Structure formats: C-alpha cells, structure tokens
Queue: 2 jobs
Job 1
Amino acid sequence: MSHAVADKRSAPAVPQRALAQRRLPKWAPAGMAAGAIALAVGIGIGAGLDSKLQWGLIAVLLFVLGTYTIATAVEGRRQAKDRVATSVVWASFILAALPLYSLIQTTVSKGVKILDGAFLSHSMNGVLTIGEGGGVYHAIIGTLEQVGIATAIAAPIGMLTAVYLVEYGKGRLALAVTFFVDVMTGIPSIVAGLFILSTWNLLLGFGPSGFAGAMALAILMMPVVVRSTEEMLKLVPNELREASLALGVPKWRTIVKVVIPTAIGGITTGVMLAVARIAGESAPIALLVFGNNLINNDPFNGPQASLPFYIFQQYQNGNDASYDRAWAAALVLIAFVMILNLMARGIARWKAPKTGR
Amino acid sequence: MAITTQNPTPPTAAKHAGANVTRPGDKIFSGLSRGSGILLLVVMASIAIFLTIRAINAISKDHGNFLTTFEWNANANPPVFGIAVLAYGTIVSSIIAMAIAVPIAVGIALFISHYAPRRLASPLSYIVDLLAAVPSIIYGLWGALFLVPHLTGLNMWLDEYLGWTVVFEKEDPQGAARSIFTVGILLAIMILPIITNVSREVFRQVPRMHEEAALALGATRWETIRMSVLPFARSGIISASMLGLGRALGETMAVATVLSAAPILSVHVLDPVGGTFSQNIVAKFGEANEFGRDALIASGLVLFVITLLVNGAARAIIAKRKEYSGANA
C-alpha cells in the first residue's frame, strides 16, 4: 500500500502519466502465449524431446518468465507480479482439469469396447477369468439392492436427525449431534466396514451378505443426508412456520405439511447425491459382501456382487480380457453416478425453495 | 452482510404454541427425531467401543511390538504384526498429496471466485463437483492402468536429477511406478475437490468492503488477494486442508490398486514398497483367519482415531469462526 501512495505523490512530476500507468496492450497475454508455444515447439524439435508434456512445461515456463520480464520493463514490478499470479492461478485450474479429462476420456474410450446389451444382461457364471465374455448383470443387481437398502435405512434416520437439529434441537445434545455428524462425514469407508464386521459378522455370527454391506453404506450415507437436509430446512422462511402455528396447527403437522414440502426439492437432491456417493464405495463391500460370480438376488443370504467391487476383482485378475471388463464396468458405474448427479441438480433447480429472495 | 442477518434462525415460536396442550402427535414426532439424533451418537460410540474391544484382544496376543514391528503375520503362530510400515506409508502418502493438492486447490478456488469470467464460474464449480463424484475405485483403475505407466518418465527424471536428495532415489529406475509417491499424486487428485469447494466458500465470504478498499488504494488484483482475501480466509483454508487430509488418510481402493505393497519402510518414496492402513486391510483380509481379522481391526482402530482427530480439529476450527458456517461441506 505504501508503494501505491508513493507513486501517487511522485505523479505530478510527470504530468503526462499522472493518472494512467503505462500498460501492456490487451492482446499482450495472447501474443506472449503464442510466442512461448512457438518457441517451446522449436526447442522441443531442436533438442529432440519426444514427450509433448515436456514441450508444454517449457512453454509454460517461457510464458511466465517472458511475461514477468516484459511486464517489469513496461508496467513495473507490481503489475508484473500481478500478471504472474494470474497465470499461476490459470495454470492451476488447467492442471486440475487435465486429470479429469484424461480419466473420463480413458474410461469412455476403453469402456465402450465391450459394452453392449450382452455385457449388461449376463453374469460371470462359467466365464474364465482369462477368457472373454461375461458381464455385469449380477453386479448391477447387487449394487441396486445394497444401495437401496442402505438408502432405506439412512434416509429416514438422516432426515429425522436433521429435523431434530433444525426444529427441536437445543442444548448440549444438539451440539453433540451436530459435531459428531460433522466428524462422522470423515469416517473412512473401510472403518465403517470393520465396524459392521466386528458386530454383525464376528459378534452375532452372520455370514457375508448384501445386507451387511448395506448397513456399512448406511453409516457412510447418514451424515451426508443430515448435512444436506439440515441446510435445506434452514432455508425455509420462518414466516411459513409462524403462519401455520398461528392457525393452531400442531408443530409436527407444521413440519410434515409445511416445512418439509417447502424444502423437498433440496432434500431429494441431497439424498440423491448421497446415493451417488455410496454407490461407488467398494471397501466395505470387500469385507462384508465378498463379491460373487453368480446372480444372487437375495441380499440377506450369501455373498453378492457389486459394481465397484466387480471392477476391483477384474482389475486384480490382471489380464487383458479382465481389464476390458473392468473398464466397461467402470463406464457403467460412472454413467450411473453422473446421471444421478445431473438428475439431483436438475431437481434442485426445478424445485428450489422459494425463499422470496 | 444483509443475507446473514435475514437468515432464518431455528424457530422458537413453538414455545408458546403448545404451552398448555400436549398433543400425542407432537410427542411421537419429536421423540422420533430426537431418537434419530441419539441413534447417530450411539453408532459413533459403538464404532469406537467394538473396534477397541477387538483391537485389545488382538494386541494383547501380539508377539511383536504393535507400534514398531514391520511385518504383518497375524495368521502365523505366534502372531507377529505391527503398524510401523502402514503408519509411515499412510502419513507420507498423505503429506505428498497435501503438498500437491493444497496450493493447486487454493489456486482453483481463487480462479473460480476471483479470476474466471462471471459466466464461467458456475460451470467451473460444477466440473469440480464432478471430480468429487467419481468413485474412488475408478480413480484406482485409472491410476493403476494409466497413471502408473505414464509416470515412469517422471520417476526416471526425478531419480536422475533429484536422486541426490535420497528421498527421490530409486533402486530400479526403469521399474513400474507403483510407489508411495504415485499414491500421493493420485490422492492429491482425489482430495482436490473438497479442498477447493470449502476454500471457495470461504473466499466468497470475504467482506466485499475489504477488497474494494484495497482496490481503491490502487492495489493490483494479486495485492488485493494477498492483503485482504488470504488473511481473512486463512483458517478456512487450514480446515479445508485438514478435511482433505482426512480423506487422504482413509482412502482404500485407489491405494490398493496402485501400490505394490511390501513390508519395507523406505525413505525412497519412488521405490515400490510400503503400505497404508486401509490398503493393508483390504489386501490381507481374504487370507485372514479369525485372529487375523481382529489384528486388521486393530489397525483400523488406529486409522479411525487418526481421522477422528484430524476431522475433529478441522471442524473445531470451522466452528470457532462462526462466519464460516456456510462452509461446512
């Protein structure tokens, strides 16, 4: 800041530039980028570097250095620093977009290879691990059942907890619940799996089943549902509650008939995002459901397959036919999760709570 | 500021509404919702209790030192197992992930909140959300089949030019990059979204006046950010990073696919050795007998306690600064 003041004080000595600093033209960054890329390609070909990534790195370095020197010469050091910061921020964004692009591009291009109707409608029954063929039907059934049961457990408990926190919660119990919901969000999925393992399987002596996995998934899902529902209920204007209570409507009916319907869009979105999150969980499944090559429609008896764990198993088989199946299943899973996400956001926009703001 | 004051506070009107009438419906409903809250606490408590019971059972019969033994032979008779390698691998891979992810995530958050053109900002944050939605097993598959072969070059380069630092020395420069370092890079990609989202929320809450004051004094955009945005957001960035750290510590499948685990504690992060808590649990579970499972649960308990401490600290920082209440991801 002291610099800025000093600049202004010295300004009258140079009347021509009293109010306007010398600036680089608007096209300067673009020009500089083009120059840097051209130079980098030149260096790359000249030095015989075969990795395009190295060319890119050289171009970025040239761009930052070039911008800094030229901007220092023309605009001064403060502006030069600003320009460097701008390019660093842009670079970090591009750096983060690269893996996402690569991940989706790889999954799609490798996944479509064997993804067809037969893949979706067949199990791995009788398919050799090194052989081609087979499918994910049994895994889709397993995932749908496990996620369905987990949602049936976690959604009501999570929503009721959120209602408690927003509508009833006072005192130390509410504080404790809020804190532990936050902490619970960070429980590693494997720990949730170990907990169910130590109680349901080791203490009570039940065998592996889809239901055991679903309980672990429910533990992971609950805090997410509580958080999002809580945020949505807080958005409901107090005037609505007061109007209803003033008409003599009991509090519980006010909540059920006025508060929740107002926020239902956001609540649905939150639940769907939570479903999308647990649908991709495989660590608890590995401990509790075991995976299965055959179709098992009964989630309460015997090992079941699951889409994410199927990907892991196929990866572990370690041959090309299995890798193909893993990629195809990954594409199915990613499509499922993305569609859930898009639908959830669509609902959020469509049924956004009308807060009058 | 106007928005925060208008924010509806939890209703207190009910105090008068039901002052002299108690309706059964009210009792049932409030009981149900309070019960759900208590159930959540019970679940948390029983996770701690049951894991501890199993863990004590396992550790008391351990013929090695649970904290310092390297190998994991819980099925053997007598059982010898320890978490030294696992704790080391978990912490080092998370540190690498944080070192990469935090600066980039803060950069992205700044990009979305201050640099990107207005019209781009919301699609961009949607892209970040998508990054968060990708299941971890798919990161694992991509990491093992795409990232590992593509990192061989970088590994050779690091070994050649930075090998003198010992940390980047690699025994077999040509070998596959199934190392703690690769795991760190993959974890960095996976925890980017959560750090970005929380930091972005905090950046949005910087009082507009602070920024305008800096700009009015003639500060450049970078100076404005350094003088008014970053100081205000510091505690938010710290807690965001710790939430990311909590994720990185507990990540299972992405580590299990990438790492070729071996019970060797090595400072050379590029060597394909080491292990993490969760990776070890998944890898050893299939062959574990009843006692072996207890031993794995014991290592899970250590992981649980570590993540609990990290997440609790992060949440406590957020809670202390109430103005960040919107930042709870």
Job 2
Amino acid sequence: MAIIEPTASSEASIAVIPPATPSSAMGALKRPVATKGWRQWVFTVDHKKLGIMYMATAMFFFLVGGLEAVMIRMQLALPNGKILNADLYNQMFTMHATTMVFLFVMPMTAGFANYFIPLQIGARDVAFPRINAFSFWALLFGGLFINLSWFLGGAADGGWFMYAPNSGPIFSPSHGVDFWALGLQITGIASLAGAINLIVTILNMRAPGMKLMRMPIFTWMSLVVQFLLAFAVPVITVALFLLSFQRNFGATFFDVSAGADPLLWQHLFWIFGHPEVYILILPSFGIISEVLPVFSRKPLFGYPFVVFSGAAIGFVGWGVWAHHMFASGLGPVSVAVFSISTMAIAVPTGVKIVNWTLTLWGGKLWFTTAMKFAIGLIVLFTIGGLSGVTHSVAPSDTQQTDTYYIVAHFHYVLFGGAVLGLFSGFYYWWPKMFGKMLNEKLGTWNFWFMIIGLNMTFGPMHILGLQGQPRRMYQWTENRAGEGFFNLAFWNLIASIGSLVLVVGVFFFLVNVFITARNGKVAPLDPWGARSLEWMTSNPPKEHNFDSIPTVHHLDEFFHRKYAEDANGQMQQIATAEEVLKQLEDNADTHIHMPSPSYWPIVIAFGLPVTALGVIYSIPLAIFGGLIILMGAFGWALEPSTAPDTDFDPPSSGNTSKDVVHVG
Amino acid sequence: MWFTLDNLATAHDTHEDAAHTSTGLSNVKLGMWLFLGTECLLFGGLISTYMLYRGRVGTGPRPAQVFDIPFTSVSSFVLLMSSLTMVLAVSSAHKRDDKSTNLWLVITALLGATFVGGQVYEFTAFYNEGMGFSTSLFSSSFYVLTGFHGVHVTVGLIMLLALRGMLKNNKVPGSRAETVEMIGLYWHFVDIVWIIIFTLIYLIPA
C-alpha cells in the first residue's frame, strides 16, 4: 500500500513504510491510508490479505453448508423423519449444494489462487489489485444475499440445478429462487473478474526466467480453472438472466405450457455445470501435486504429463455436459457421443493418478498431515472417479439417475477429492500464511475423523442408491426399507452417524486453528523442505513478497537453489533456505511502490446486492443500486491505482530515481 | 453485462509498460481481450436462445409482420460507421492530437446514440403493434437479445463520454492512447456482435 524502502543490509527484513498522507488524488474521496485495525482489511488491495479473507469467508460458508448437510442427514436417519417438513427439506438440500459449490469450494480455491499464484510466479501482486478486491467483496455480498432469503420468506428450493418447472413461480412461490438467481449472478461477476485478473497475472507477471513449463503445478491448474471460469460463467449468466426475466418480468422461457423447451435450461446449466466440476477439483489436484513431491523427497513424476492432462481435462470438459441429461430423451446419437466423450475424460484424470502414484514410488515418504490428506485424495477420488465411469455408460446411468448412487459419486469426488485437497493445502501452507505450524497431532485426529466420517456417510449411499432410494426424498418409511444386508434403515442410520463423525473431524480442524493462533509453534523458514518459489519469502511473506524479484532457472527453483549435483551425480545441499532468502534481501530493490488501498471496490460491490434487492422488491431501489455502481466506477477510474509519489510524507524521491518498481 | 462498467476502470488500472510483461502485451490489453472472449459466450447463449424460439410466436405477431428492415438497416449502417470514427479517434490518440481525438470521440458517441435512439423507437413501434415483452417466446427472446446489445452500446456511450471529459480536463492517467484503444476494442466488439445479430434476426427469415 505504500512505498517500501528496505535498506540494503541484512536487517532489510524490516521494511520501512513512510507514512502516507491521504489525498483525494483525482477521485471523489480521499484515499484510505490506514495500516492498522479493520480499515487495513476492508480497503486493502493486497492479494495476500484478500486471499485470507476469501478463505475465511469460504470457511464460514463451509460451516453453514455443513450445518445444512447435518440437518438433511438427521432428517433421514430414522423412518418418518420429523425434523424438517418437505418444503424446508427442499430448501435445505438446495442451499447445501449451492453453498458448498459456490460459496465454499469456489471461494476457497480462489483464496488459495489469490494468495499463492503471485508468490509462485515471483510477482508482487496480481495484475489488477483493485479488481481483485472487488471480486472478493462481490463474492461475500453475493453469498450473504443468497442466504438472506432464509429470513425473507424462504430459500431457493428447486435443487442447485434449478430445473424447470420447479424453478417457476407455481412450484416455488417464495422469493427464494429470485435471491438464488440474482445472488449467483453477483458471485458470477466476482468469478469472472477474478478469472480475467488471474489469467492476466499468470501470463503477464511471471518473474524473469519463469517460463510456462517452469511454473508450479498449482499455478498451472489454477490457470486452467480460470479459463474454464472465464468461459463457463457467461453461459450460466445467460441462463440466470432468462430465469430472472421469467420470474420477475413475465417471460416464459422455460414454461412448457407456453410452448417453451425446458431442455434449454438444462443445456445452458450443464454447459456451465460440467466445466464447473473441474473448476472445483483441479485446484485440489494442483495442491496435492505440490504436496506429494515435497513429502516424497522427489520431483513430481512426469511434470509435463500432469500439466497437459490438466489442460486436456479443461478442453474435454466442454464436451461432456449432456451426460447429466441422459434420462431426458436426447436421442441415441447425442447419448452415444456424450457417453464416449465422458469415458474419454477419464483418461487424463487417470494419467494424473498414475503420476501421483509414481511420485510416491521409491520416495522417502514423510507422513505429515498434509501428506495424509493428499494420499486420501488419491484413494477416495479414484473411488469416486470409478463410480463416475459407471455413469458414462448410458444404460447403466439411466438406472442410477436421481438415486443416492449419484449422491455417493459426487461426494466422493468433491469431498474425497476437492475438500481433502483443500485441507492438504491448509496444513502445507499454514506456516507460509501465518508463520505458525498447525498442530500435527490434532491434524492426525482431524484427518482420521474426516476419512472415517466421509466413508461412513457416503459409502453406504452406493448401496442405498443401487437399491433404488431416490435422491431428494424427504422421508422414508420402515415398511419399504427391505431386509438383510440391503436394509435401507441400517445404511441410512450409518450414513447419518457418519455425518456426525465428519463434524467432529472438522471440529478438530477448528480447534487446531484456534490453538495454533494462540500458542502455535513458530514456523521455521522452510519447514517442509519445499521446492517452489512461494517458500523463497519470509513466513508470512512481506507486503511486497520479494525484496528483489528472483530470476528463475529451473522448474522447482527453490529446490535447485538449495541443492546441486556433486561429482558423483548425488544431490548435495549447497545452501540453506535462510541463505537463499538472504541473497534476495541483500539485493533488495529500493522504493517499491505497491498498489494503494481504495474505497471503490467495496462501494461498487455493495451496489450489486442493492440493485438485486431492487429487482425483487422495487425498481427505484434497483436504479439507486445502479447509481452506486456507476458512481463507484467513476470514482475508481479517476483514482490512479498507485498513489502518486507526492502523496507520501515525506514525498518519495521516486520520480527521479530509476530504482522505482511500480506494481500493479 | 453489468460488468462492462468496470472496463473504464480496467483501462486505467495500471500504467505499466507493455515491455515489462511476460507476454509483451500490456495487462490492460490482455485483460480486455479476455473479457471480450467471455462476452462471446454471453452473446452465444443469448443468440442460441433466440434461434431456438424465433419461430414460436404463439398468438403474437410474427417477425415478418413487425420488422422494418430498411429502418434497421439504416441504424445498423450508422452503428458500423461509428466503428470507423472510433478507429480515427484511436489513430488521433496515437498521434497525441487531442483536438481530433476529442472530435472523433464525440462523433462516435453521437452515432452510437443515434443507434440506441433507433432501437428505442423500434421497440416502441413493436410494442404498439402488439408485441410486448411477454407476448410470446419470440418476443421475449428478441427483446432480451437486442436489449442486451443495446445495454452494451449504452455502456460504451458512457465510457466514451467519460473518456472525453477526462481528456478535456487532462485527467486520463497513464498512457492515453491505450485507454482510447481499449474503449475502441470494446466498441468494435459491440459492433461486430450487432452484425451477427442483424443477420440472424432480420435478414434470415424464420
């Protein structure tokens, strides 16, 4: 946020931040300058602070979504469940899925991407820091907006896929679906802005020598994800607009009685929705591709294959959407084509699993919590992947459609895949982000409770589904539960108990975070013996990330600065992490101009839910919201993203110095 | 989409030299191209919806009954000419000729405003002929598609006028020519989309 002037000595780690004077520059408001208290968070444009805020928001919604899940499982634990009525049950599963997909996994991966991409490519911030702040606030306000519907007449109840006619006013008379459609529109804007920002960051802001094929895998997978987001989100935007126009302005886009084609919604939704599942899983693939080599003490096996299989998943992911619609009567040709493309997409995914396994093979395995979660992902995602392949066989899929078998499948890939990967990331990068080590003992408890809990919850659902228990039924009765091994009552109860075990697992994580924050072990500079560039910074990184931007010569640059081959071809340590870091500090840039905080991102983002509320309740309010956005856009445009040199006290000599480094 | 409002901001977000980036393209330019890529998908979805529903008129008027092709051809011509004047504005900006830049921006905005005015007139005429927003699937999808395009042109107008104002007060931070160029990119995109929409809606009979 300021001009940072590290001195050239080894004490450079304490950067000097001269006090800034707020001036209105050319904007309407004086620029925020606070470096303490809540203001430093609310108006920040620092990618690391925003990354943490993304993660905290996502964690909050994870707990909300988890609470909804537990209520669903409690309702189904025993016959004739009375905890929820049918209407509330519909709201519960709709909001559980919406929350977990849009408000937990997506923001969590966005948080990781925000925090680590600039560090991994050797940049000081993202390409558009204010747009980054805007993305975060739009996501938060969008998420709160969707959940506001709980208190204003009931939440959305048509399932997260919101098929017609359930999305229409006859079957969903409350404003829930309106809140849902407009709220997702807002989070969609956040995703789109974030995607463009991160693509430009990755393509344009790499350190010297950081070629594409030297980028860490997490950055690579995030790049694929951002492209998927950039091109998938506009499609759901169209679908959501059509839905809003139908519900609020009398159009009939999905109304069969008016001659419409309800399959239009299904196509638009799944053209977005299938890339979306890769949007959810690929960041976790990236995370464990960082974790596995570090804790196997080996380079990643077949780096180019992992990169290109990720890209292949990204491409083929666009050609499989109709496998969600096999039961809708698409015709044999479409079904055959989508069936085959779905089988084909298993191949690049299988390539990744082979690469991870061969990374472990022959390595000196170190079973930290991060490593355990990563291995958990390999095993459980493979199970989920295999049940996914059974869906690609269309005749078998028509049997499985709308049963608990599907629920079992996508929870194995999303919980067993995406979520375990995220937890692996927490344990691996916590010391980097907060300078303290998460407790490994509590981590082990966290891991085992989650693994046991998730297998107990979702494993029995395979049996329930194949026995024909439909998805989304809000009650089951004893006399239809069957007998023996396939008794539905038994497996439903097991699944419900499993969900409580999962809760305990997540509780261990929260306790761990709390204990670590209070008196956690201070993290050494390089606690895991890591390989990639983000570890070539202090813990936590300085505001400007790197005192001097490193020049990259290798894939796994940090590793190659610490180790080199000796005469016998053996890897020998040539430098400690501290020495590597000191080298950067000794060559510190003077006068680093970081992007300045701004009021405008939060102002514009705030205009979005105001406008959306107006669309539902009163058009003048919508116009008022639009004016907030317009005013914010002008304020933003008139304010330079980096404060002018004269705006500092004392004014920096930046104008005349050739050493000035402008960021963002 | 609402998000285009942010372009104005995007165009000013950095004054970093293109030479300093890994690709050699400035951040703003790369970002703008990506944004236009996402817009293709947005209009792709809207156009698909229209193509699916254009024959479903119910009891409402059919397209051939309401369309006034000579009128819309003229307003399309006006919009395409605004692309030419936008090019001239960008060219003047590169030559640092503020006076001409200003002039061409004003002319571009006037042409764009003429197009939007024509659309308002057209919508009013259609409405009076009994084609309301919710009359039929055809009418809803027609209004949504052309309406979204009209909103894009309007957002472009706001950006043009804002740019002109900033130019006049010498308040365009960073590289001026690039800012003009970015808004030009957006403007051309909106024009190209209109060529597709005009062909599909008006010229090819349902």
